[in-house]
Amino acid sequence: MEVFKGSFTQQEPIPEAAIAAALRVMQSGRLHRYNTVPGEVAEAALLEEEFAAATGARYCLAVASGGYALACALRAVGVQPGDRVLTNAFTLAPVPGAIASLGAVPVFVGVTEGLVIDLDDLAAKADQARVLMLSHMRGHICDMAALMRLCDARGVTVIEDCAHTMGASWAGRQSGRWGAMGCYSTQTYKHMNSGEGGLLISDDPGLMARAVLLSGSYMLYDRHRAAPPPEAFAALRLVTPNVSGRMDNLRAAILRPQLQDLARQCARWNERYHVVEAGLDQTPGLTLIARPEAEGFVASSFQFLLLDWQPAAIRAVLSRCAARGVELKWFGAPDPVGFTSRYDSWTYAPSAPMPASDRVLNGILDMRLPLTFSLEDCAQIARIIRAEVSAVYQGDLSAPEGGARGD
Ligand SMILES: *Cc1c(COP(=O)(O)O)cnc(C)c1O
Predict the structure, then answer these.
(1) What is the pLDDT of residue 337?
(2) Is the pLDDT of residue 152 over 90?
(3) C-alpha closest to that of 373 among 270, 254, 261
(4) How would CATH label the architecture of 262-393?
């Protein structure tokens, strides 16, 4: 019986060019983004310029984390304490957390079997808020043209959480370029790794001027290279609070070489994804996630569904896979484990039950696909999952829980 030996949390090392750039920043001692000598352009400002160019956005701001980028975007679009903000029922805790950090109240929108936001549920709830914090959770992208039509018609401003879609697109337009602002994370488990970090993009000069001031630019915003012109700051500079959350030059230096390599890395993630997907195809009881033609996804993780399975049977799959070195996370556990919380776990934000979404959430299995895995590793992981899902589904269990089917 084969056992997988790799680590699901082991990312690749920081590239040599990034280490060299980091050393140069440390040798200079000028880690703060506004600590420059005459004629010097800070690494943070260069990163913003390069990320704006890479996404096609007019403006970019580097910040302390993805969660900071989300809260900063919410402040920039004018969300006030007590306001309601639409967001996904299936996302990660920092998303509703960013909304709650402003004293605003998340309104959760359901999830489909494609693991994207349910546009019918969004249409039903659109009157409750004027902002949607849209999370492209685990890199699954909804029909963005339809979503934008709906939100534009209802006067809902869209902020995109692109923590899992850096480098991805819908119908050829980059994720993060559909809404008013796009937010990215450069935390270790995302598509570029600076430990912690975030990026914010927009084409709107007023929103970006506010974001730059919010991030803690003092009156030094003219040192940015991907920020709006000084006129955009004139009416805002004295009325916008400083909610300090800048990125430093050390992180920016680590990220710039990674940005140059992003497309190649995205292709490598997708190679791994396709190997796992092919290995799990036609496994009885297991539902693969359909990936629409228009979705230019970047699959740094893999999800599948065990729809309508008894919890005990899913637990049997988890423990049997774990015994063979394959770490699956389950979004259906009644109590959150690790990062697998869901809308009804966030009890600071009241929510009504969503039975159709609960059916999906109860069946979501999730795993990371770090680039330290070889294609053969991915094939082996798929063989193990396939064998254990099949064994449990067919009721061929040494464990006492019994068969899988919910009937
Ligand atoms: C990681 C993540 C965030 C927050 O990013 P941090 O940089 O960790 O603050 C937000 N949304 C999603 C979906 C994430 O996975």
Answers:
(1) 85
(2) yes
(3) 270
(4) Alpha-Beta Complex (3.90)
pLDDT digits over 80-95, tens only? 999 999 999 999 999 9
CB distance 259 to ligand 1 below 6 Å: no
DSSP string, 186-247: -STTSSS-SSS-EEEEES-HHHHHHHHHHTT-TT-GGG-SSS--THHHHTTTTTS-----BP
Domain ranges, ordered by start, for the chain: 16-260, 262-393
Strand-strand pairing, 364-368 and 329-330: antiparallel
> Best mutation site among 161, 162, 193, 339 for ligand 1, i.e. most ligand atoms within 8 A of its Cβ?
161
Between the two ends of the chain, the Cα-to-Cα distance in Å is 31
Angstrom distance (rounded) from CA 370 to CA 364: 19
Q: pLDDT grade, residue 339 (50/70/90)?
A: confident
pLDDT tens-place string over residues 102-128? 999 999 999 999 999 999 999 999 999
pTM of the model: 0.96
Sign of CA dihedral 113, 70, 92, 325: positive
For ligand 1, is residue 194 a contact (CB within 6 Å)? no
Q: Torsions phi, psi of 168, nearest 5?
A: -100, 170
Could you tell which of 185, 194, 200 is best to mutate to test the pocket of ligand 1, judged by most ligand atoms within 8 Å of the CB? 185
What is the C-alpha separation between 55 and 198, in angstroms, rounded?
15
The domain made up of 16-260 is a member of CATH 3.40.640.10: yes
